[in-house]
Amino acid sequence: MELLLGGAAGAFALAALAGWWWRRRTTDRRSRRYPEPEQFPLGLGEGAEGDLPSAAPAPTPVADPSNAVPAIEPVATADARAVLDVVLTVKRAGTNVLSAAIDYVIVVRNVGESAATEIRLDVRLLSAGQQQDAAIAALFSAPIAQPLAAPFALPPGGAVEQSGMAMHPKQTLEVMQAAGRVLFVPVLTVNLTYDWVGGSGQTARSYVIGIDRGATAKLQPFRLDAPPRMYDTVAALPYPIAETR
């Protein structure tokens, strides 16, 4: 995947970032949206759209979805298993007074043939940097000790929507300097573990978040040295680190 970043008329070079900034390039639609680092247009707007309430860095817990899902008596046939699929929609992204923030909606669907039980969801907001791959891999390999909601269940074909706001303190964001501006790129991870009769599974995905300036423009990073602002026009592109088992 090619990444976002660049400046006007190549006024600065970001070659030092290339080693850790989107090393895995793909030839799908992401390559059309993300230019070479040297070509990324910097032009983030000034101003604020109102501060969000300050919050702890952990994502905001969502309501227990088990209230909306009927009790399930798991029934498995030979070779049947549960398989969870996840779809992420980012509603807003940017900064508040103390944190970077991503306002998201996640739809979890069981596309398998057996009921999924003990589904545990974890959502984290990181920032792209030298250790991003290792940090994502560590999250996906560790058990989910504190899920965002109480563990729930989904029958085959069942789906549930989770919404919340993931936050990360500004002080610990990985940032970069470009044309006199302090920038950061959010990386959101979504991690699901679950059971079915006869086994257990995991669906984990990571996404890069940027400001969407239209179909022909490049996604842009967020400024950290400007007044707090949440953007409504944002997009999430899949990052290669994922887990499916």
TrEMBL record:
The superkingdom of the source organism is Bacteria
According to the record, the residues making up region (Disordered) are 32-64
Could you identify this protein by its name?
DUF11 domain-containing protein
